Amino acid sequence: MIHWGEALATLQSKGEAYVLVTVIGTRGSTPRETGSKMVVTAENSFDTIGGGHLEFKAIAKARELLLSEQEAQALEQYPLGATLGQCCGGHVSVLFEYFAGASKTLLVFGAGHVAKALIPILGELPLKVVWVDSREEQFPDYVPSNVNKCLTDTPVDEVQDAPSGSFMLVLTHNHQLDYELTEAALKRGDLGFLGVIGSDTKARRFRQRLAHRQFSPTDIAHMTCPVGAQDVPGKRPMEVAVSIASQLIALYHQDLPKQVSPSAADWSEIKQALEV
C-alpha cells in the first residue's frame, strides 16, 4: 500500500487533482484513529481510513468533489452502524480537502542553456510542460515528472496541436525558428501567453516583420519580448530562467480557480468534531 504522504508528493509533482481525506474526530469504536488519512484521485485511492463501507462512501464523496473542478473543503459525519454495514458502532467525522490539478499547458521551445536552467524550476510548479527541440542530444536524461520531452524536426507543428489557452515560451537557438514559432502562435490567437527570449533589438525587428505580414498592433501586443519579469535582473542562464519563472507564476495564479473556504457553520462543525 502506498502511504498517503508519498502519493501526495507524486500527485503534486505531476500536477494532478486529488482529495485529501482526513479523519478529524472519532467517538466510540472506530476502525482508524483521528488523524488517519487517505488520498483519492479520479482513478485511484492511496492509504486507508479504515476500509469497508465507510471508505467506499468516503471515496464516493471525494470523487463527487473532484467532478466540481473547484477547490473546496467539506465535512461529513458517518455513524458506523447498520446503515454503513459496519459493526463498530462508533462515529467518525471526516474532512475532505479538494486540490485542483494543473490545468495549464506550457510549451517550451528550445533546449539551450536557459531552458535547461528553467526546466527544473518548472518541475516544482503546477504546470503540464511540453519541452520541444529537434536535437536529441540537448535533452538531459532526467526531466521532472510533469515535463514531457518532444523530439521533432517540425516544431512549428506543435504550436497547432497545443490546447487553447496554453502558455508558450520561445527559447530556441535560431532566430528564424523563433520568428516562425511566434508567427504561428499569433495566427492561432487563442494562446494564454507568448514569451520570446531576446533583446530589445530582436523584439523591435520581430514586431516590424509581423507588421509587414499584416498582423495588427493588437495581435503583436500578445507577444512578450523580451520575456521575463523586469524586476529580476541579470543575464546568466539561471538569472534569466528565474525571471521567466517569476513571470509564469504570476500568470498562472491569475487563472487558478478560486479556493472555496469552509463557511462559519462548517468551521463550527469541525471544531465540534475535534472536541469529541
UniProtKB/TrEMBL annotation:
InterPro entries to which the protein is assigned, alphabetical: MoCofactor_Util/Proc, NAD(P)-bd_dom_sf, Xanthine_DH_XdhC, XdhC_CoxI, XdhC_Rossmann_dom
SUPFAM superfamilies registered for this protein in UniProt: NAD(P)-binding Rossmann-fold domains (SSF51735)
XdhC Rossmann domain span: 106-248
Residue span, XdhC- CoxI domain: 12-78
Protein's recorded name: Xanthine dehydrogenase accessory protein XdhC
Originating organism: Rhodanobacter aciditrophus
